[in-house]
Amino acid sequence: MEITHKHIDAFAAKLYPDDEVVVEATGNAMAVAERLRPHVARVIVANARDVHVIAHAKIKTDKIDAAVLARLHAAGFLPGVRIPDDRTKALRRQSPGATGSSGNGPG
To answer: Tens digits of per-residue pLDDT, 12-34?
Structure first.
């Protein structure tokens, strides 16, 4: 399923200001986190490699992964990745070297 702004906004409309949302780190996780952040108390981006329970699961579905992430977060055991603030993102856009890329293709 393709995730669009419309889908994210529909999900965000169901959330409460004191909710906390966990997003598994994927290619678009930061964009999703940014879109959800104004609607909730906190957005945590979880790196699946750091969450060994998910990374090494024999049965992998989005529903099972979501349940595991929710349980780990509720127990305080969920390692999250740092989400850059607006100033940091602006600086990274000005300096391609800050992200490890030369700006000249993959790298």
So the answer is: 999 999 999 998 888 888 899 99
0.70 exceeded by pTM? no
Count of domains for the chain: 1
Q: How confident is the model at residue 107 (pLDDT cuts 50, 70, 90)?
A: very low
91 lies in some domain:
no
CA-CA distance, 107 to 90, in Å (whole number)? 20
**Residue 72 corresponds to which tokens in the numbers above?**
């780990």
Strand 20-24 and strand 42-46: pairing?
Answer: parallel
List alpha helices for the chain, DSSP H: 5-12, 29-36, 52-55, 62-75, 86-94
- Asked whether 52 and 72 are in contact (CB, 8 A), the reply is no
